[in-house]
Amino acid sequence: MRNFDILIIGCGISGAVLAERYASVGKRVLVLERRNHIGGNCYDYVDENGILVSKYGAHLFHTNDESVWEYVNRFASWYPWEHKVLARVGEKTVPIPVNIDTVNMLFGKSIQGEEEMSQWLEKNRIPFKNPKNGEEAVLNRVGLELYEKMFKHYTKKQWDKFPAELDASVLERIPVRLNHDDRYFSDTFQALPAGGYTKMFEKILAHENIEVRLNTDYFDVMHLYKNYDKLFYTGPIDRYFEFKHSLCEKLEYRSINFVTETVDRPFFQENSVVNYPGTEVAFTRIIEYKHFGNQRSNKTTIVKEFTVDDGEPYYPVPNPRNQHIFEKYKADAEKLTDVYFVGRLANYKYFNMDQAFKNALDLFTSLEEVCLEHLVTAGR
Ligand code: UDP
C-alpha cells in the first residue's frame, strides 16, 4: 500500500510550495530531494565565521505581487532590504543599474536631473524599435560606451555568450534610471527572511502530511514510486526525458563555481555585492554576506562567482536555439498525464524567486479548481 498521494521531485521553492499546498488540503505528500538539504538554491547556513551565507549565491526577494507577499509572510518574518549593487569599472566604482551617478562618475559629467539624464541617454543610445537580442536591448537603452564598459564582458563571463547571442529579456532585467535611485529593484516589497531562507523552508514543510527524503535521486528509485495521483517534477526537463533530444542539440545551462574565502578583517568591501564587468578578472562578482542583515563577526566571508558550463545547472540560457529544443521536451511533457513540470529548470525559464512562488501557487489553484469542478459535475 502506498503512503502518499502526491509525489514531488525537488525541494526548492516550487516543490516546497506544492507540498505545503497539497498537505493543507489533506493530501499525503512525499518529496524526494537529490541534495542533502532542503531549499534548493535558496539554501543558506551559518558558516565557521558565524555568518549566514547562501550556498548557491545571494537570493534577494522582491515582488509586486501582494498574494505572493502574503504567502511568504506566513512562513517567516521579513525585514526590509533594498538591495544595491556596485560595479568596479576600471579605477571607478559606480552604481548599477545605470543612473545619473553612474554616468557622472564614468564620463566626468555633472548631470543634475531627469531631463538632463534623458537628454544624455537620447544622445548616446542607438535606437532599436524592437530589440531582438541583449546587445540591441542595451544599445537601445544606454548606448555603446556603457554597453562596452558594463554589459558586454560581464555577460560573456556570465553566459559564455555575448549579449547578441541571448534574448533581449536577459539584459532587460536591469533597468536604467533617470534619477539617483541606486536600488537594484524597484518592487513594492523587498525583504529578506529573518534567520534565513532555510528556516523559512523548514516552516513551509512542517506539516504532518509532508515527508521529505533527502539524498534521494528520483531516477535511482523511480521504479518504487509509480503509484501517485500527481507527480510534480522540478528538475531539468531534459533529464526527465533522458536527454532524448540531445543527441545533436543539447539544452544549455550555466553553472556557478562559488569560491569562498575567509578574510581576517571586519569587512572586505563596501557593499554586499560588487560586480566586475571587465575582462581583468575572470569572476563576475564578489558577494560579502555579512552585509545582508548587518551581521557581526571579527572576520568576513566573501564568495567569488565564476560561471561555468559544467556542474549543477543554475541558469537556463534564454535564446532562440535553446527555446527551440525546449519546445520539443515541452511537447513530450504535455503528452503525460498527472505529471507536471514546475519551476526554473523544468520550464527552462529565468524565473525570479517571486515568479517561482507564483507559478507553483497558480498551478495548485488551477489543478484544485479542476478537481472541484469535477466533483461538482459528478454530483458529489
Ligand atoms: N549584467 C551585466 N552587467 C552587470 C550586471 C548584469 O551585463 O553588471 C547582465 C548580465 O547579462 C546578467 C543580466 O544582466 O546575466 C541579468 O542580471 P541579474 O543581476 O538579473 O542576474 P542574476 O542576479 O540573475 O545573476
Characterise this structure:
By secondary structure, this protein is of the alpha/beta class. It is about 35% helix and about 20% strand. Helix 1 (about 15-25) packs parallel to helix 12 (about 355-375) and helix 5 (about 135-140) packs antiparallel against helix 6. The protein is globular and about 70 Å long. The model has no long low-confidence stretch (mean pLDDT about 95). Bound molecules: uridine-5'-diphosphate.
What are the SSEs and their pairings?
Layout: E1 6-9, H1 13-24, E2 29-32, E3 44-46, E4 52-54, E5 61-63, H2 66-73, E6 78-80, E7 85-89, E8 92-96, H3 100-107, H4 114-124, H5 134-142, H6 144-159, H7 168-171, E9 189-193, H8 197-205, E10 210-213, H9 218-221, E11 230-233, H10 237-240, E12 253-263, E13 273-275, E14 285-288, E15 300-308, E16 315-316, H11 320-335, E17 339-341, H12 353-377
Parallel strand pairs: 1-2, 1-11, 2-10, 7-13, 11-17
Antiparallel strand pairs: 3-4, 5-9, 6-9, 7-8, 12-15, 12-16, 13-14, 14-15
